[in-house]
Amino acid sequence: MDIHVKEPVRDGARRRDKLEGAILAAATRLFAECGFDGTTIAAVAERTGISKQNLLYYFPTKNSLYGRVLDDVLDDWLERMAHLADAAGEPADVLRAYVGAKLRFSREQPWASRVYAMEVIGGAKFYGEQIRARVVPLLRRDIEVFERWMADGRIACVDATHLLFALWAMTQSYADFSAQMALVLDKPELTGADFEDAERLIGDMVVRAVASTA
């Protein structure tokens, strides 16, 4: 008896989750292409293939939809980065893993990366408090790991904060400026080989500059 009662509930939940995912995918692309001001609920509904009223059942305002998109972007990014700065690990291995994780995010979630970048470029007026609450503690934890390595003589003495800023800039540009890179390379889009080349080069640069105390 329970099986027959619960199965339709599960099916309904799966359908809702699928539709919500489609809405968020469409919204992410549109926010990345048009910005917050240039994106409308009607445009997201049309891109998703549903009515505006149906979309408003899931997200009653554009702000709630935009906030959820940014929440998902940050959740994904922080989950990928959360365990990389391991004080017990080899600095060179940790740094290369950090570069690799950031580039994978740029490759796998380019539209999400651009939405986040546009929010920050605009002054993080909508999402600033969440960035302070969630990104800053992770940044400080990573800085503490790097400073411990410096104190132990395992890496060269550098400004750890600006090291992380540089890593973010080098890796996130492969999402935010991929169109320019593809134009320079005379190809439709960046390929897996391009990301592998970038990971190798950036990793080598950082390791040679930081992980050696020679």
Helix content: over 70%
Task: Please summarize the sheet with the most strands.
Answer: none
Number of strands: 0
Radius of gyration: 21 Å
CATH fold name of the largest domain: Tetracycline Repressor, domain 2
- From the spread of the alpha carbons, the general shape counts as globular
Distance between the termini: 72 Å
CATH H level of the largest domain: which superfamily? Tetracycline Repressor, domain 2
What is the N-to-C order of secondary-structure elements (H for helix, E for strand)? HHHHHHHHHH
Structural class: mainly alpha
Give me the CATH architecture of the largest domain, please: Orthogonal Bundle
Could you list the spans in which at least 5 consecutive residues all have pLDDT below 50? Answer: none
Count of distinct structural domains = 2
- CATH top-level class of the largest domain: Mainly Alpha
Mean pLDDT: 90
Strand proportion, as a percent range, falls in under 5%
- Helix count from the secondary structure assignment: 10
Provide structural commentary.
By secondary structure, the protein is mostly helical. It has two domains: 1-60, Arc Repressor Mutant, subunit A (Orthogonal Bundle); 69-211, Tetracycline Repressor, domain 2 (Orthogonal Bundle). The protein is 80% helix and 0% strand. It has helices at residues 2-38, 41-48, 52-58, 62-81, 91-108, 110-121, 128-151, 160-176, 178-185, 192-211. The chain is globular, with a radius of gyration of 21 Å.
Secondary structure elements and their pairing?
Elements lengths: L1 H37 L2 H8 L3 H7 L3 H20 L9 H18 L1 H12 L6 H24 L8 H17 L1 H8 L6 H20 L3
Helix pairs in contact: 1-2, 1-4, 1-6, 2-3, 4-5, 4-6, 5-8, 5-10, 6-8, 8-10
